[in-house]
Amino acid sequence: MKIIYCGCGKFGIDSLNAIKASAHTLSHIITHPAKQAGRGMKMRANDVAQWAEENSIPFTAIENINSPDGIELVEKLSPDLLIVIAFGQKISNEIIGIPPKGAINVHGSLLPKYRGAAPINWAIINGEKTTGISIITLAQTMDAGEILVKAELKIADDDTADIVHDALGKLAAPVLVKTIDKIAFGTAEYKKQDNSKATKAPKLKKSDGFLDFSAPAEQIHNRVRGLWPWPAATACFVNQKDGKKIPVTIAKTQIACDTGKNDKPGTIDGDLNILCGEGHLKILEIKPHGGKMMDLKSFLNGRGSGLGDYFTPPENKD
Protein backbone atom coordinates (compact mmCIF):
# COMPACT_ATOMS: atom_id res chain seq x y z
CA MET A 1 0.00 0.00 0.00
CA LYS A 2 0.96 3.62 -0.54
CA ILE A 3 1.26 5.33 2.85
CA ILE A 4 1.41 8.93 4.04
CA TYR A 5 2.76 9.40 7.56
CA CYS A 6 1.73 12.39 9.69
CA GLY A 7 3.85 13.06 12.78
CA CYS A 8 6.58 15.10 14.37
CA GLY A 9 7.60 13.29 17.60
CA LYS A 10 10.32 10.82 18.47
CA PHE A 11 7.62 8.34 19.54
CA GLY A 12 7.06 7.35 15.90
CA ILE A 13 10.67 6.92 14.73
CA ASP A 14 10.77 3.14 15.32
CA SER A 15 7.49 2.83 13.42
CA LEU A 16 8.89 4.87 10.54
CA ASN A 17 11.87 2.52 10.31
CA ALA A 18 9.53 -0.48 10.35
CA ILE A 19 7.26 0.93 7.63
CA LYS A 20 10.25 1.81 5.45
CA ALA A 21 11.53 -1.79 5.77
CA SER A 22 8.10 -3.32 5.06
CA ALA A 23 6.49 -4.36 1.78
CA HIS A 24 4.51 -1.11 1.78
CA THR A 25 5.56 2.23 0.32
CA LEU A 26 6.19 5.20 2.57
CA SER A 27 5.54 7.78 -0.12
CA HIS A 28 5.44 11.01 1.85
CA ILE A 29 5.63 12.50 5.36
CA ILE A 30 3.61 15.46 6.61
CA THR A 31 5.08 17.17 9.67
CA HIS A 32 5.37 20.50 11.48
CA PRO A 33 7.64 23.39 10.43
CA ALA A 34 10.97 23.91 12.18
CA LYS A 35 10.86 25.89 15.43
CA GLN A 36 13.31 27.90 17.51
CA ALA A 37 14.91 25.81 20.25
CA GLY A 38 17.84 25.77 22.68
CA ARG A 39 19.68 28.62 24.35
CA GLY A 40 20.57 30.18 21.02
CA MET A 41 16.95 29.93 19.84
CA LYS A 42 18.12 28.55 16.50
CA MET A 43 15.63 27.00 14.10
CA ARG A 44 15.46 23.24 14.63
CA ALA A 45 13.60 20.66 12.58
CA ASN A 46 11.62 18.10 14.57
CA ASP A 47 12.68 14.45 14.92
CA VAL A 48 10.47 13.23 12.07
CA ALA A 49 11.64 15.92 9.63
CA GLN A 50 15.25 15.04 10.46
CA TRP A 51 14.50 11.34 9.92
CA ALA A 52 12.88 12.09 6.55
CA GLU A 53 15.95 14.00 5.40
CA GLU A 54 18.33 11.27 6.59
CA ASN A 55 16.28 8.56 4.85
CA SER A 56 15.55 10.51 1.65
CA ILE A 57 11.78 10.39 2.14
CA PRO A 58 9.87 13.36 0.65
CA PHE A 59 8.19 15.46 3.33
CA THR A 60 6.12 18.60 3.72
CA ALA A 61 6.16 20.81 6.82
CA ILE A 62 2.78 22.46 7.26
CA GLU A 63 1.15 24.46 10.05
CA ASN A 64 -2.35 23.11 9.42
CA ILE A 65 -3.02 19.94 7.47
CA ASN A 66 -6.72 20.88 7.27
CA SER A 67 -6.00 24.07 5.31
CA PRO A 68 -6.86 24.15 1.59
CA ASP A 69 -3.17 23.58 0.82
CA GLY A 70 -3.08 20.58 3.16
CA ILE A 71 -6.18 19.00 1.66
CA GLU A 72 -4.86 19.58 -1.85
CA LEU A 73 -1.54 17.98 -0.89
CA VAL A 74 -3.14 14.80 0.45
CA GLU A 75 -5.44 14.55 -2.56
CA LYS A 76 -2.50 14.97 -4.94
CA LEU A 77 -0.44 12.32 -3.11
CA SER A 78 -3.41 9.91 -3.31
CA PRO A 79 -2.44 7.54 -0.46
CA ASP A 80 -4.08 4.20 0.27
CA LEU A 81 -3.66 4.73 4.02
CA LEU A 82 -2.87 7.61 6.37
CA ILE A 83 -0.85 6.85 9.52
CA VAL A 84 -0.79 9.41 12.33
CA ILE A 85 1.62 9.22 15.27
CA ALA A 86 2.42 12.08 17.70
CA PHE A 87 1.25 14.69 15.18
CA GLY A 88 -0.38 17.22 17.49
CA GLN A 89 -2.99 18.33 14.96
CA LYS A 90 -6.61 17.22 14.83
CA ILE A 91 -7.31 15.85 11.35
CA SER A 92 -10.61 16.67 9.69
CA ASN A 93 -13.07 14.18 8.26
CA GLU A 94 -12.31 15.64 4.84
CA ILE A 95 -8.70 14.47 5.11
CA ILE A 96 -9.65 11.13 6.70
CA GLY A 97 -11.99 10.42 3.81
CA ILE A 98 -9.34 10.73 1.11
CA PRO A 99 -7.41 7.42 1.55
CA PRO A 100 -9.58 4.42 0.55
CA LYS A 101 -8.21 2.42 3.51
CA GLY A 102 -8.82 5.27 5.94
CA ALA A 103 -6.56 6.69 8.63
CA ILE A 104 -5.10 5.08 11.75
CA ASN A 105 -3.30 6.33 14.83
CA VAL A 106 -0.85 4.79 17.32
CA HIS A 107 -1.72 5.96 20.85
CA GLY A 108 0.42 5.39 23.96
CA SER A 109 -2.13 3.79 26.27
CA LEU A 110 -4.54 0.89 26.55
CA LEU A 111 -7.64 2.68 25.34
CA PRO A 112 -10.18 3.72 26.42
CA LYS A 113 -7.96 4.57 29.41
CA TYR A 114 -5.89 7.75 29.14
CA ARG A 115 -7.30 9.57 26.16
CA GLY A 116 -5.43 12.80 25.58
CA ALA A 117 -2.05 14.43 25.03
CA ALA A 118 -0.06 12.85 27.90
CA PRO A 119 -1.16 9.22 28.36
CA ILE A 120 2.26 7.89 29.36
CA ASN A 121 2.80 10.54 32.02
CA TRP A 122 -0.61 10.15 33.64
CA ALA A 123 -0.40 6.36 33.70
CA ILE A 124 2.82 6.59 35.74
CA ILE A 125 1.55 9.43 37.95
CA ASN A 126 -1.49 7.32 38.79
CA GLY A 127 0.67 4.35 39.75
CA GLU A 128 -0.31 2.03 36.88
CA LYS A 129 1.72 -1.19 36.69
CA THR A 130 0.79 -1.86 33.06
CA THR A 131 0.34 0.36 30.02
CA GLY A 132 0.65 -0.23 26.30
CA ILE A 133 -0.22 0.99 22.83
CA SER A 134 -3.50 1.02 20.93
CA ILE A 135 -3.86 1.28 17.17
CA ILE A 136 -7.14 2.98 16.35
CA THR A 137 -9.02 4.63 13.53
CA LEU A 138 -9.12 8.41 13.57
CA ALA A 139 -12.28 9.99 14.97
CA GLN A 140 -13.40 13.56 15.63
CA THR A 141 -13.59 12.82 19.38
CA MET A 142 -10.01 12.61 20.63
CA ASP A 143 -8.69 9.01 20.79
CA ALA A 144 -12.20 7.58 20.53
CA GLY A 145 -11.81 5.68 17.25
CA GLU A 146 -12.31 1.97 16.75
CA ILE A 147 -9.54 -0.26 18.08
CA LEU A 148 -7.68 -2.58 15.71
CA VAL A 149 -5.16 -3.94 18.19
CA LYS A 150 -3.64 -3.35 21.64
CA ALA A 151 -0.27 -4.45 23.05
CA GLU A 152 0.75 -4.31 26.72
CA LEU A 153 3.92 -3.18 28.49
CA LYS A 154 4.82 -3.62 32.16
CA ILE A 155 5.87 -0.49 34.06
CA ALA A 156 8.73 -1.06 36.51
CA ASP A 157 8.68 0.69 39.89
CA ASP A 158 11.54 3.01 38.90
CA ASP A 159 10.55 3.64 35.27
CA THR A 160 10.29 7.30 34.31
CA ALA A 161 8.12 8.72 31.53
CA ASP A 162 11.00 8.95 29.05
CA ILE A 163 11.89 5.27 29.56
CA VAL A 164 8.30 4.11 29.06
CA HIS A 165 7.91 6.47 26.08
CA ASP A 166 10.86 4.89 24.26
CA ALA A 167 9.80 1.35 25.19
CA LEU A 168 6.30 1.92 23.83
CA GLY A 169 7.73 3.37 20.62
CA LYS A 170 9.70 0.15 20.09
CA LEU A 171 6.71 -2.00 21.02
CA ALA A 172 4.48 -0.22 18.51
CA ALA A 173 6.65 -0.68 15.41
CA PRO A 174 6.16 -4.41 14.63
CA VAL A 175 2.53 -4.30 15.79
CA LEU A 176 1.85 -1.43 13.39
CA VAL A 177 3.32 -3.23 10.38
CA LYS A 178 1.23 -6.34 11.10
CA THR A 179 -1.84 -4.13 11.37
CA ILE A 180 -1.06 -2.43 8.05
CA ASP A 181 -0.73 -5.89 6.45
CA LYS A 182 -4.17 -6.87 7.75
CA ILE A 183 -5.70 -3.65 6.45
CA ALA A 184 -4.15 -4.30 3.03
CA PHE A 185 -5.50 -7.88 2.91
CA GLY A 186 -8.90 -6.89 4.26
CA THR A 187 -8.56 -9.05 7.40
CA ALA A 188 -8.35 -6.25 10.00
CA GLU A 189 -10.96 -6.31 12.75
CA TYR A 190 -12.38 -3.11 14.21
CA LYS A 191 -13.82 -2.90 17.71
CA LYS A 192 -15.69 0.05 19.22
CA GLN A 193 -14.41 1.47 22.49
CA ASP A 194 -16.47 1.40 25.67
CA ASN A 195 -16.79 5.15 26.20
CA SER A 196 -18.07 4.63 29.75
CA LYS A 197 -14.59 3.41 30.73
CA ALA A 198 -12.72 6.34 29.22
CA THR A 199 -10.30 8.33 31.36
CA LYS A 200 -8.47 11.54 30.50
CA ALA A 201 -4.77 12.32 30.11
CA PRO A 202 -4.69 16.11 29.61
CA LYS A 203 -1.71 18.07 28.35
CA LEU A 204 0.86 18.68 31.08
CA LYS A 205 1.66 22.10 32.50
CA LYS A 206 4.51 23.21 34.75
CA SER A 207 2.29 23.39 37.83
CA ASP A 208 1.63 19.64 37.54
CA GLY A 209 5.19 19.20 38.76
CA PHE A 210 4.79 21.21 41.99
CA LEU A 211 5.41 18.75 44.84
CA ASP A 212 3.46 18.82 48.08
CA PHE A 213 5.08 16.53 50.65
CA SER A 214 1.87 16.27 52.66
CA ALA A 215 0.87 13.64 50.07
CA PRO A 216 1.84 9.98 50.60
CA ALA A 217 5.42 9.07 49.64
CA GLU A 218 4.25 6.66 46.95
CA GLN A 219 2.16 9.33 45.24
CA ILE A 220 5.08 11.77 45.24
CA HIS A 221 7.43 9.08 43.90
CA ASN A 222 5.01 8.32 41.06
CA ARG A 223 4.64 12.01 40.22
CA VAL A 224 8.41 12.46 40.05
CA ARG A 225 8.67 9.48 37.67
CA GLY A 226 5.72 10.49 35.55
CA LEU A 227 6.91 14.06 35.02
CA TRP A 228 10.50 13.32 34.04
CA PRO A 229 11.99 14.88 31.97
CA TRP A 230 9.21 17.48 31.43
CA PRO A 231 7.83 19.43 33.16
CA ALA A 232 9.80 17.73 35.98
CA ALA A 233 8.97 17.69 39.69
CA THR A 234 9.88 20.88 41.53
CA ALA A 235 9.95 22.17 45.10
CA CYS A 236 11.62 24.78 47.30
CA PHE A 237 14.38 23.76 49.70
CA VAL A 238 14.33 25.79 52.92
CA ASN A 239 17.39 26.13 55.18
CA GLN A 240 16.01 26.40 58.72
CA LYS A 241 19.03 28.45 59.90
CA ASP A 242 18.44 31.47 57.70
CA GLY A 243 15.09 30.69 56.05
CA LYS A 244 16.67 30.95 52.60
CA LYS A 245 14.64 29.22 49.88
CA ILE A 246 16.23 27.49 46.90
CA PRO A 247 14.11 26.30 43.96
CA VAL A 248 15.04 22.72 43.06
CA THR A 249 14.17 20.08 40.49
CA ILE A 250 13.83 16.54 41.82
CA ALA A 251 14.62 13.99 39.11
CA LYS A 252 14.78 10.65 40.90
CA THR A 253 13.38 9.27 44.16
CA GLN A 254 12.89 6.02 46.02
CA ILE A 255 10.42 4.90 48.66
CA ALA A 256 12.33 4.77 51.98
CA CYS A 257 11.75 2.73 55.11
CA ASP A 258 9.23 4.35 57.44
CA THR A 259 11.10 5.22 60.66
CA GLY A 260 7.93 6.41 62.36
CA LYS A 261 9.43 9.81 63.21
CA ASN A 262 6.86 12.55 63.69
CA ASP A 263 7.50 15.91 62.09
CA LYS A 264 5.91 18.15 59.49
CA PRO A 265 5.84 16.80 55.91
CA GLY A 266 8.82 17.86 53.82
CA THR A 267 11.29 17.73 56.73
CA ILE A 268 14.67 16.00 56.26
CA ASP A 269 15.33 13.37 58.94
CA GLY A 270 18.61 12.00 60.30
CA ASP A 271 18.78 9.39 57.53
CA LEU A 272 18.43 12.16 54.91
CA ASN A 273 14.97 10.92 54.00
CA ILE A 274 12.03 13.24 53.48
CA LEU A 275 8.99 12.88 55.74
CA CYS A 276 5.75 12.76 53.75
CA GLY A 277 2.08 12.74 54.64
CA GLU A 278 2.42 8.97 54.72
CA GLY A 279 5.83 7.29 54.72
CA HIS A 280 9.27 8.57 53.80
CA LEU A 281 10.97 9.36 50.51
CA LYS A 282 14.64 9.26 49.54
CA ILE A 283 15.79 11.82 46.99
CA LEU A 284 18.41 10.26 44.70
CA GLU A 285 18.89 13.07 42.19
CA ILE A 286 18.30 16.79 42.77
CA LYS A 287 19.26 19.93 40.86
CA PRO A 288 19.25 23.45 42.32
CA HIS A 289 18.03 26.18 39.99
CA GLY A 290 20.92 27.07 37.68
CA GLY A 291 23.06 24.23 39.05
CA LYS A 292 23.99 20.66 38.19
CA MET A 293 22.28 17.39 39.04
CA MET A 294 23.64 15.70 42.19
CA ASP A 295 22.68 13.41 45.05
CA LEU A 296 20.92 14.88 48.08
CA LYS A 297 23.94 14.49 50.41
CA SER A 298 26.15 16.54 48.06
CA PHE A 299 23.43 19.15 47.73
CA LEU A 300 23.10 19.49 51.51
CA ASN A 301 26.85 19.43 52.19
CA GLY A 302 27.37 22.30 49.76
CA ARG A 303 24.98 24.43 51.80
CA GLY A 304 25.87 23.39 55.33
CA SER A 305 22.41 21.90 55.59
CA GLY A 306 20.82 18.68 56.78
CA LEU A 307 18.63 17.48 59.63
CA GLY A 308 15.58 19.69 60.16
CA ASP A 309 15.76 21.53 56.86
CA TYR A 310 12.72 20.98 54.72
CA PHE A 311 11.02 21.17 51.31
CA THR A 312 7.87 23.14 50.48
CA PRO A 313 5.84 23.45 47.28
CA PRO A 314 7.10 26.12 44.83
CA GLU A 315 5.82 29.59 45.60
CA ASN A 316 4.94 30.42 42.00
CA LYS A 317 1.68 28.64 41.18
CA ASP A 318 1.43 29.94 37.59
The CATH class designation of the largest domain is Alpha Beta
By CATH, the architecture of the largest domain is named: 3-Layer(aba) Sandwich
Q: What helical percentage do the residues reach?
A: 10-25%
Q: Count the DSSP helices.
A: 8
Distance between the termini: 48 Å
Strand order of the largest sheet: 5-2-1-6-7-8-9
CA radius of gyration: 23 Å
Low-confidence stretches: none
Strand content: 25-35%
Average residue pLDDT: 94
If you consult CATH, what is the topology of the largest domain? Rossmann fold
Q: How would you sum up the major sheet? A: 7 strands, mixed
Structural category: alpha/beta
Task: Summarize the model shown.
The protein is α/β, with parallel strands linked by helices. Helix content is 25%, strand content 25%.
Strand-helix topology:
Layout: E1 2-7, H1 13-21, E2 25-31, E3 35-37, E4 42-44, H2 47-54, E5 59-61, H3 68-77, E6 81-85, H4 93-96, E7 103-107, H5 119-125, E8 130-137, E9 147-154, H6 161-185, H7 217-226, E10 233-238, E11 245-256, E12 274-275, E13 280-288, H8 296-301, E14 310-312
Helix pairs in contact: 1-6, 5-7
